[in-house]
Design a protein that fits this description.
- 10% of the residues lie in helices and 37% in strands.
- By secondary structure, it is mainly beta.
- It has 5 domains: 4-202, Jelly Rolls; 209-282, Immunoglobulin-like (Sandwich), CATH 2.60.40; 296-536 and 571-585, Alpha-Beta Barrel (TIM Barrel); 591-686, Sandwich (Immunoglobulin-like), CATH 2.60.40.10; 703-990, Beta-galactosidase, Chain A, domain 5, CATH 2.70.98.10.
- Strands 44, 51, 52, 53, 54, 56, 57, 58, 59 and 62 form a 10-stranded antiparallel sheet that branches. An 8-stranded parallel sheet has the order 31-30-29-28-27-34-33-32.
- A hairpin with a 6-residue loop joins strand 52 and strand 53.
- The structure holds beta-D-galactopyranose.
- The site of beta-D-galactopyranose has 12 residues, from strand 33.
- One of its GO terms (biological process) is lactose catabolic process.
- Residues 712-989 form the Beta galactosidase small chain/ domain.
């Protein structure tokens, strides 16, 4: 039985005691004191401990110190428990609204000073910006009240309990409460006081709240002001000095909308803000307003009359050391990074961020979908039986959450849509939230993805719909049914703007097909883009028992119930490193598009409203990746939505090398988020003269050498290659396996697009079943003719009759070694293959292979459905940097369309490889790694990879695409690698 002290943990009512109504988070000159800093702290295993700690004379000398804000599970080296990661699952029995007696409970205490002159304040308020999950507050022993809503602000009136001088505040925080049932977001459970605590003096005659609703219409701005203040607080003055506005309202009844001339609009591209103050004699509030009008017209979502395309990221608040504790500098750098990668929108998944984040979004320029702190996903398992979203007992809790969400952040021009929450099923409480928003803020539409049938929301939203399905949503003629909709409901949804609140699950290596989704946005105006899942990995920095640091995911803290590495699905690794997927994203959504046509290029400006006056255009010509000419391009200013045709520069074309023109659109001047010269958009034009693939003219030069037989730089024993250019080499052996990506391990049901996949079974599982990771070889024949060595092998796996015949022919052409490999699968292979490659193992010896220089696609890894960021050029990298440190090791490092490759050791070339296109013009790619695919597949974390004494080069005739199947569609058929015969032809020379 819960004690009298803890019964409230099962109470669905959101607030008790002296809680004040929600209001904006304002920058006021009224006095306040931050209570951030060290607090005394004690952790108890249950909620039922006595509350005597809150009494005034309580002796807390035996307690610890803990910083506020922080999460206790990230402090104390495990002494205060460990983080738990679950996606959908509840880490406690599903017994709503009850939670177990085992309920870690943190008691916090600290002293604080109230200045003597605060006695003039009308009221003293104690504000908590974020406490997970339920907390109760005492001041000087008086019980003040309690609240839940972890990522929401709560203010208590403590006027009658504080006194000038020393005061004691005590806070009890329970990890689990009824609120936990509606905070089941896919993230770490991180209890504690994790946002700011502030004590505020509210002056008599002050401004309790203010809301400046702005609009923009053809150069004219509107400000509609809502002031919450006592009658005695008037007059109220609004000043907007930059536009010469000073408006005094003598009484509340006088407050009226203002029209302002000569206004520049606010947009995510040109985030023009104006400083405003709203003052009474007692208090002045500083705001930054942006003028913009949000509107839905038919199936279009418009800001200032123009259609918005969301190139967005789902942004959680997560940091490897701080968890959800906000750090402004880090957040600003993160947002600046988004801007540098052409991101223009943020969905605050799945709760309001720290309030300062919205100031930054206003200032740097993002379209924001501001989401309420609400998710009940764990009820899905029960067929949504008992879901709070449709239970009247929870109605007030739901309304409280949306009120706190909207009221806190209503002044931000960046917020263009309110979102009710995420994955909370559907029900009347959600409809009630929507109705409340509609009544309170007619200027912004309501979003909630779970309203599939469109009963109470203004935009149609989906997550992870396939390319085909998304296209059908954008199309009117289609009768294709929409998810969970009757035909009539589907028709209703098609009358609304559509957005993908989540798509392209960026877990591990991937996603593919970003360009296919983007193409749809430009074909079907109803489709307004979407938000990648998600911006960053949620890894928590920790160490192995021997002190090796690593980024932990679910299960690494010994959780009983967890969801593994599903929390590592960002475009940024935990340590802020952008993955290749973010570079791909940047290229796919670049706001300037180039279309080459003869000796001209059409330059289209795809932005919402900004012209190209902030850009310069730079070109360069390279021959086989070597710069031969460059210059600036004269481009007229192109208005948003327009394009201009511009002559190309003179391009010197090489006869014996590839000729490529590259054009970059770069920033002409420094911005708040990037340096002058930062590349916004790029395009390449291949102007190479066609050259025939050289025919093979074999020469004879067999030499016996030291028990082996040599042909040029190659030495063989019994038909097997043993050395190249004097260095030991094993292989080439057929490699069909890649360390499965998280997408390869995905087992979604959605497979209609790729008939080689099996619903509910991952491709990785099928590969393991077929033994692709454990192939064995049987040499069928070795035949040495006067001018070549030909070997034929049969490659197959234990207990399988499937096989691949590999024929290798070594010869000498023009004094250089040539290898031709024919790869021919037997009948009967049913699955897709991860790759069709040949692997060379290069043991370290005296000069280990530790780098590569190449001419081909680069600089980063690329795959058939993720090629847009890759450009043709000459690149170099250390072997280390060729691989990406995905949180769970997996396939990485493939460079596509290789022409020339030099393997290097300490900067010096040791082996040179030239590739040839096959008869269909396809070039191989390569991977150079310190680990084999089989070794990588064994490791759960980077630190589990074994020490290596060998470098492994894989030359791939083909790789399977990436797809998004960890949570979404499989690889698109065109990029799925079905077993097929392939040829690899290489020239190999010494360094
Ligand atoms: C969605 C959910 C996200 C996240 C994602 C998978 O269904 O809204 O919170 O769980 O799937 O990573």
């Amino acid at each position: 039985m819960p004690s009298q002290h803890s019964a409230y943990v099962s109470d669905t009512a959101p607030e008790r005691g002296a809680l004040r109504a929600a209001r904006s988070w304002l920058h006021s000159d009224a006095p306040s004191r931050s209570l951030n800093g060290l607090w005394r702290f004690r952790l108890s295993p249950t909620a039922s401990v006595a509350e005597d700690f809150a009494a005034e004379g309580f002796d807390d000398t035996g307690w610890d110190d803990i910083p506020v804000p922080s999460h206790w599970v990230l402090r104390g080296d495990g002494a205060y428990g460990r983080p738990i990661y679950t996606n959908v699952q509840f880490p406690f029995p599903i017994d709503p609204p009850h939670v177990p007696d085992e309920n870690p409970t943190g008691d916090y205490r600290r002293h604080f000073e109230v200045p003597a002159d605060w006695s003039e304040a009308e009221r003293v308020v104690l504000r908590f910006d974020g406490v997970e999950s339920l907390f109760k507050v005492w001041v000087n022993g008086d019980e003040i009240g309690s609240a839940s809503g972890s990522r929401l602000a709560h203010e208590f009136d403590v006027t009658s309990s504080v006194r000038p001088g020393d005061n004691v505040v005590s806070v009890r925080v329970h990890q689990w409460s009824a609120a936990s049932y509606v905070e089941d977001q896919d993230q770490w459970w991180l209890p504690g006081i994790f946002r700011d605590v502030t004590v505020i003096a509210r002056p008599a005659g002050g401004i309790e709240d203010v809301w400046l609703r702005t609009g923009f219409d053809n150069g004219r701005g509107q400000v509609e002001t809502e002031v919450t203040a006592d009658a005695a607080a008037f007059p109220v003055t609004l000043r907007l000095p930059e536009l010469g506005v000073e408006q005094v309202w003598a009484t509340a009844a006088d407050v009226a909308p203002l029209d302002v001339d000569g206004v520049e609009p606010w947009s995510a591209e040109r985030p023009r803000l104006y400083d405003v103050t709203v003052s009474t004699a007692a208090e002045s509030i500083a705001l930054r307003v942006g003028f913009r009008t949000v509107e839905i017209r038919g199936d279009r979502f418009l800001v200032n009359g123009r259609r918005v395309v969301f190139h967005g990221m789902n942004r959680h608040e997560t940091h490897p050391e701080r968890g959800r504790v906000f750090d402004e500098e880090h957040a600003r750098e993160d947002l600046a990074r988004m801007k540098r990668f052409n991101v223009n929108a943020i969905r605050t998944s799945h709760y309001p961020p720290h309030p300062r984040l919205l100031d930054l979004a206003d200032e740097l320029g993002f379209w924001v979908v501001l989401e309420c702190d609400l998710e009940t996903h764990g009820f899905d398992k029960l067929g949504w039986v008992g879901n709070p979203s449709d239970d009247p007992a929870w109605r007030e809790a739901y309304l409280d959450r949306i009120r706190r969400t909207v009221e806190r952040d209503k002044n931000h021009p960046s917020i263009v849509i309110w979102s009710l929450g995420n994955e909370a099923g559907t029900g009347t409480n959600l409809a009630a939230m929507s109705a409340w928003v509609h009544a309170r803020d007619a200027g912004r539409p309501v979003h909630y993805e779970g309203d599939h049938a469109g009963e109470y929301t203004d935009v149609y939203s989906r997550m992870y719909s396939s390319v085909l399905e998304t296209e059908q949503i954008g199309t009117d003629g289609s009768r294709a049914p929409l998810l969970n909709c009757t035909p009539a409901q589907g028709a209703r949804q098609r009358t609304k703007p559509f957005l993908l609140c989540e798509y392209a699950h960026a877990m591990g290596n991937g996603p593919g097909a970003l360009d296919q989704y983007e193409a749809l946005v430009h074909e079907h105006p109803r489709l307004h883009g979407g938000f990648i899942w998600e911006w960053r990995d949620h890894g928590i920095l920790t160490t192995t028992p021997d002190g090796t640091p690593f980024y932990a995911y679910g299960g690494d803290f010994g959780e009983v119930v967890h969801d593994g590495n599903f929390v590592m699905d960002g475009m940024l690794l935990s340590d802020d490193v952008p993955t290749p997927s973010l570079h791909e994203y940047k290229a796919v959504v670049q706001p300037v598009r180039f279309t080459f046509d003869g000796d001209e290029v059409a330059i289209a400006n795809l932005r919402h409203s900004a012209d190209t006056s902030d850009l310069r255009f730079h070109w360069r010509v390279e021959h086989d990746g070597t710069l031969v000419d460059s210059g600036d391009m004269e481009v007229p200013v192109v208005a948003a939505g327009e394009s201009a045709r511009v002559p190309l520069p003179r391009i010197p074309v090489a006869q014996d090398a590839e000729t490529w023109l590259t054009i970059d659109a770069v920033l002409a001047a420094e911005t708040a988020w990037a340096r002058d010269g930062h590349v916004i958009a790029t395009a390449q034009l291949d102007r190479s003269t066609r050259r025939p693939v050289p025919a093979v003219r074999r020469e004879t030069d067999w030499r016996p050498s030291d028990g082996t037989l040599a042909l040029g730089i190659a030495e063989f024993v019994d038909g097997s290659l043993v050395r190249l250019a004097g260095r030991a080499v094993a292989g080439p052996r057929l490699e069909l396996f890649r360390a499965p990506t998280d997408n390869d391990e995905g087992a979604t049901q959605e497979v209609e697009e790729s008939d080689a996949s099996v619903a509910g079974v991952s491709n990785a599982e099928l590969w393991r079943r077929d033994g692709l990771d454990r192939l064995t070889t049987r040499l069928l024949s070795v035949e040495r003719s006067a001018d070549a060595l030909r070997t034929i092998s049969k490659v197959s796996a234990a207990n399988s009759a499937l096989s691949v015949i590999v024929e290798s022919v070594w010869s000498l052409v023009g004094g250089e070694l040539e290898l031709r490999v024919e790869i021919e699968p037997s009948r009967g292979w049913l699955t897709v293959w991860p790759r069709i490659g040949i692997r060379f193992d290069l043991p370290d010896g005296a000069a280990p292979v530790d780098g590569a220089e190449w001419f081909g696609l680069g600089p980063l890894e690329s795959y058939p459905d993720s090629l847009r960021a890759a450009r043709t050029g000459r690149f170099s990298s250390t072997i280390r940097d060729l691989s990406v440190d995905y949180a769970r090791p997996q396939e990485t490092g493939h460079r596509s369309h290789l022409r020339q490759l030099t393997l290097t050791s300490a900067g010096a070339g040791v082996l040179r490889i030239v590739t040839f296109p096959d008869t269909r013009g396809r070039r191989p790619g390569f991977t150079l790694s310190r680990h084999t695919p089989q070794q990588i597949a064994q490791a759960g974390h980077p630190f589990e990879l074994p020490d290596s004494t060998t470098s492994h080069l894989i030359v791939d005739a083909a790789q399977h695409g990436l797809g998004s199947r960890a949570c979404g569609p499989d690889v698109w058929p065109e990029f799925a690698l079905r077993p097929e015969a392939r040829t690899i032809r290489l020239r190999i020379a010494g360094g």
